[in-house]
Design a protein that fits this description.
It is a single chain. The chain has 147 residues and is α+β, with helices and mostly antiparallel strands. It has a single domain, classed as CBS-domain (Roll). It is built from six helices and five strands; from the N terminus they run αβαββαααββα. The protein is elongated, with a radius of gyration of 18 Å.
């Protein structure tokens, strides 16, 4: 299974922020609805590029050092600038490897430099569980057919 298969199921909606938005604005967007875990920062407004990503974790970690003043900072002050991305053609195994290696829960999906979606660890786990259920059913049917 590929990343594109997950996007086909969940859709290509990506919640974004601008680097000059305040953290208060970003936190409101993260809280939802819908509640989400990360915003891709794309200043061009057209999803042509990924400038950064800001997650709940990024905000909580900065809260420890900046306190309430954090809310007045900009997304650019807090966002992760080195964004790990995947391709729609990457396998789920490759995507899980990236998430594990970099300890990220969200991966923007980029195709030919353009942001085309976002997957989360929850999306990957859900898909993997569905695959395992199907495999178990096939094995059960093979066993029952042979006895």
């Amino acid at each position: 299974m590929k990343v594109s298969d997950i996007l086909r199921i969940k859709g290509d909606t990506v919640h974004t922020a601008l680097s000059w938005n305040t953290i208060a604005e970003a936190a409101t967007r993260l809280a939802g609805p819908p509640a989400i875990g990360a915003l891709v920062v794309s200043d061009d407004g057209r999803r042509e590029r990924v400038d950064g990503i800001v997650s709940e974790r990024d905000i909580v970690r900065r809260l420890a050092t900046d306190g309430a003043g954090l809310l007045d900072l900009t997304v650019a002050d807090v966002m992760t600038r080195h964004v790990v991305t995947c391709s729609p053609e990457d396998s789920l195994t490759e995507a899980m490897g990236l998430m594990n290696r970099w300890r990220h829960r969200h991966l923007p999906v980029v195709d030919d430099g353009r942001l085309v979606g976002m997957i989360s660890i929850g999306d990957v786990v859900k898909q993997r569980l569905a695959e395992m259920s199907t495999e178990a059913g096939v094995l059960r049917d093979i066993y029952l057919a042979s006895h």
